[in-house]
Amino acid sequence: MGSSASKISETGLKHCTLWKADRSPACRAVMMALDSMNLSITEVDINMDKGEHRTQEMINLNPLQTLPVFKDRELVISDSHAICSYLASRYCDSGRLLPKDPGGRSIVDQHMHYNSSTIYPRFRAAAYPILYEHCNFVMPQQILEIECIYSDLECMLFKRTWFGGSWATLSDIVFASTISTLNILVPVDKNKYPRLSSWLYRISEELYFITANRKGLSEFSRRIDCSTSLDDTDEFKCPRSSCSRRGLQLKEPSPEATCKPVTQD
Ligand SMILES: N[C@@H](CCC(=O)N[C@@H](CS)C(=O)NCC(=O)O)C(=O)O
C-alpha cells in the first residue's frame, strides 16, 4: 500500500475512501458507479497477491477480508452492491442509476441480488482455481453454469436495451463488471446470445466502462493467461483520487483491454 496523500478534485468527496484491486469485478462495479456519477473519492490500491487485504488494518475494516471496502466518515461498507446503492442514493439526486420509485428500485435490487447470489459465486468457482490453485483451464461444469447465466440474461433482455430501465442503471453496471470478466473465461457467443452480446458491446462503449473497467479487465486477462502473480508494474502506488484515475485512463487507453470477443459486424 502506498502512503502519500492524493489531490482531490473540487468535486471530490474528501471524507470517502475506497480500498480496491482493479482486477476484482466487485471493485470495478464500484469504480464504474463512481465514474458514472462523476464522483471523486480517495482510492487505495490493494495488492491481493501480496495478501494486503488481510492485514490487521484491513481486517479491522472488513472482517470478511474481501474487497472492495468503502468508508464514508464513520460508515464502513464492504459489499460492492451495497456500496453502489449507498453512493447512488446518497450522492446522485437524479435517481438515474437507482430509481427513486419503489417499483423501479426493486427491479435494480433484484438484478443486484442475482449478481451477488448467482453470478459472483460462479465467477469465483471458475476463476479462483486458475488464480490461486495452478489450474490452467475452466472446468466443464463451470462452463455449463456460466452458460446458464448467459441464457438467463439473454431472456431478461427480451425487448429491452438495458437491464434496469430505459437507460443504464446500477443493474447494468454490476452486470457489466461480472459479465465482461466472465467473457474472458467463457466468451459470450453472439450467435447463441445475440441480445447479451449486443448489450455487452453497448455498455463497453460507455465512458465509465473505459475509465473504470478496462484496465482491470486487462489485468485479470493477463493474470488468467499467466496464472501467476504479475510484477508490480502498476503506475499507481499511492492513494489517489478517482478523478486522477479517470484522467489517466483517458490519456492512455489500453488497446488490449477492449472487450475483444464481443464485436458487432
Ligand atoms: N459480494 C462481495 C464479493 C467480494 C469479493 O468476494 N471480492 C473478492 C475480489 S473480486 C475478494 O476480495 N476475494 C478475496 C480473496 O481472493 O482472497 C461484493 O460484491 O463485494
UniProtKB/TrEMBL annotation:
Name the UniProt record assigns to this protein: Uncharacterized protein
